[in-house]
Amino acid sequence: MTGSTEARTSPVPEGPGEQNGAGRPGSAPGTVREPARPGGDRHQDAVLRLGVRASVPCRACLSGEDLDWLGGRGVSVALDLPTVVTTVPGPPPAPTGDWADQVWDFLRARLAGLPPRPPAVEVRSEAPSASGLSSSTALIVGLFRAYTGACVPAPDTVPVGTLAQWAYEFEFAHFNGGGMDQLAVIEGGALLLEGRPTGLPAVADRAVFPADWAILVLDSASRKDTSDHIRTVRAQLRDGDPALAAYLKEADAASADAWSAIRSGELGALAEAMDRAHITMRDHQRMSTPLLETLRALAHRSTGLKLKLSGAGGGGALVGVCRTADADGIAAALREALREEHPDARVIPTRASAGAVPEARNSRLRHVPDQMNGS
């Protein structure tokens, strides 16, 4: 797979959009002391650990966009298209106001003793950006993991449930949305989620995505545009829009069928449920675009693959499922079909992935009360 690299000895991608573990000061290899500051800054003895590596998958929503905060069931699967954040040597980067700065400021408000500036990091990502696959969430969770791992001994004080809650609260402040993405990339595998108006959704069930199934991503090369999406949907909810009510009912039913298909190992039934989920997204909520519909029709005509938009739409990626043994052949046929009229579109066969914190699936993350819902 082809990855991209961005080093934050220079900037991390801007927002609005495996951790090695940590040793103790004086005993952990690869640690550096932050340079002393004039005037005896209280952080002058802070120890930053280099080479801390956080690998975070992206995710596909197989059914139930927006239901993580509207209420209802949604189905996610983590994808083996990781974003990797690694702390590297070098002076603390200059402030830019990007995601890295904002995550660091968020952590400094919650963890005592962190220095004013974050360590330098290198970011590599195999996930297409602005595609509806939660690459931004993968970056944000990666920064949380790398930063807490770098600041010995902070990770000991950040349980996985708190990590998920903090990542959710950080993104909620920007986007006012739900918590599917954070749980999906932290836990990995396939999740059935039950939405809540605020706070992380409940994990209703977990499953290992079948090893002989592949996920095929078709990146349309058109960036998703969801700048007004959540505000619009919240207005629909407030006004009792019948189109939203119809979407909620049909998407929830599609999610139930998608989960049943995963649990029973019926690939064809999963494809059908995803197809229904896409149709209700398109017809009731207008999440699709003419280009996405053209690509979807071309894929079905040339390969028989049924594709579903992942994410709230306006562009981005379509996803489909097939047998692993068939994935390369289907991808080659689809690339050939796209070659003349859609040369910028990318076909990416991948598989389900473990999460950023694999042990989270065994910890059964509990709902952590948050300040937004007062629960």
Helix and strand arrangement:
Elements: E1 4-8, E2 31-33, E3 47-49, E4 53-63, H1 67-70, E5 73-87, H2 99-108, E6 121-125, H3 135-150, H4 160-175, H5 180-187, E7 190-194, E8 202-207, E9 213-219, H6 229-239, H7 242-264, H8 267-285, H9 290-303, E10 308-309, E11 317-323, H10 324-338, E12 346-350, H11 360-363
Antiparallel strand pairs: 1-6, 2-3, 4-5, 5-6, 5-7, 7-8, 9-11, 9-12, 10-11
Helix pairs in contact: 2-3, 3-4, 4-5, 7-8, 9-10
Quickly count the helices: 11
Radius of gyration: 21 Å
Spatial separation of the terminal alpha carbons:
43 Å
Bin the strand percentage.
15-25%
User: Which regions have little confidence, pLDDT < 50, spanning 5+ residues?
Assistant: 1-45, 365-375
Estimated helix fraction? 25-40%
**Mean pLDDT, rounded to whole units?**
84
Number of strands: 12
Report the structural category. alpha+beta
Order of helices and strands: EEEEHEHEHHHEEEHHHHEEHEH
The main pleated sheet reads as: 6 strands, antiparallel
The shape is globular
Structural description of this entry:
Helices cover 37% and strands 20% of the residues. The model is unreliable at 1-45 and 365-375 (pLDDT under 50). Helix 2 (99-108) packs across helix 3, helix 3 crosses helix 4 and helix 9 (290-303) packs across helix 10 (324-338). The chain is of the alpha+beta class.
What tags apply to this protein structure?
single chain; 375 residues; alpha+beta; six-stranded antiparallel beta sheet; four-stranded antiparallel beta sheet; 11 helices; 12 strands; disordered C terminus
